[in-house]
Amino acid sequence: MMPKPMPWNIKDIIEATGGRTVMGSGDHVFDGISIDSRTISGTDMFVAIRGNIHDGHNFIDQVAKEGGKGFIINEKSVAFIVNILRGRTDVSVVSVDDTVRALGDMAAFQKTRSGVKAVAITGSNGKTSTRGLTESVFKQKFSTLATRGNFNNEIGLPLTLLRLSDEYDWAVVELGMNRSGEIKTLAEISSPDIGIITNISAAHIEGLGSIEGVIKAKAELIEHVSPSGLIILNADDPRVYAMAKDAEADVLLYGFSENAEIRASKVTQEGYGHRFLLTTPSGKTQMDLPLPGGFMISNAMAAAAAGYSAGLSLPEIRAGVEDFNPEHGRMSIIHTRKGITIIDDTYNANPASMEAAIKTLCSLKKGSNGYLVAGDMLEMGFYAEKVHHDVGAFAAKADISGIYATGRYAEDVANGAMREKMDARHIYYGPKEDIVERLKHTLSHPDWVLVKGSRGMKMETIVADLKEWGGIS
After folding, report:
1. Thinking of the domain 115-323, which architecture would CATH place it in?
2. CA-based angle 27:33:35, to the nearest 5?
């Protein structure tokens, strides 16, 4: 049974947010915090978030009629909400300057009063897999709460931490960002005891301007790890390794580098996964990582470093790594009855992860044909045309039998492949529906196809169509 979140009273909410009571006596106690009018329980406090599409304030009347007793609203909406709830003596309303900030303030309050420690993970690539691996490792010994899905922003992270109670030992959270200052905000909310930075590459560069902007943004995590805490850095990434000099907290390095205290060596491919020797300051153990992609070894080392620093034994760390199952759309291998193998890596994409996925396809398909279906890598800004051109060139130089590209920059992918003398007959760019139809006439046993693109491209629809056509074995 999952631990129940800690209850909230109006005094707690005022203390956490600095808000003021505008309706009600303040006697209500709430079992949890919710921002979703569709799923809220009558015992939850409703926080009205004003988003890009919907404004939660417009749903307060509905929530109240369905039994809701508590509301946190923006100060500017007080008159509007008081008028809607006029005559209701059974509700409590707290106003704040900004309900999104208030959500974060309550999450920080919850983390502090629960006494739970936190691991916070960021990086251009691998943070979701590292978060999952770390959760799996920590669960071998501790009661652990972790981020689910893409709840890694200024709304998702607080919603995760608001589920905490004093029955948990650790929270493992992921910090995402697409603009400067966002990691700072999320780190202030989560107050990490352990911070992990996986790597730095050209991801979300549109909002940050340059790779230097990405470095500065990711380094915001280091500044907000407790001085008595620990910072875990990838020794194989020069940009991340260089951050060690600015850290006030202790630093633990992982990687293949001789500089790393947590180190992998003697790597062999075993089926779709990898076997390697993990070396730590407390000894060595052999790991069988049941995941495709050599880059997953780095993620496993980061999780092992966190586990080691939290006091887990080598057998516990090994069990956690070997028990891990990746989330849907993260290098998921799908075998079909037609003998076609699909690599579903549709969760997200940037230049580094795209190249890593192509390398994985080439290593797994052995002598079979391998095809790349590439969607746009979003948030690349001024670099967009170049990085898509470079991905096409990289794929053409790899052992790829054909490229299918879709999106605004699909032609740039095609041009990059042709620059490297790939036969134009093996390159296509166009709508997703046309790509699927072309693949149906191209693929045959024992071909492999990698499908990858940024989340906003919804490349999982191609995977779904191919699964339906090929049949699931």
Report:
1. 3-Layer(aba) Sandwich (3.40)
2. 125
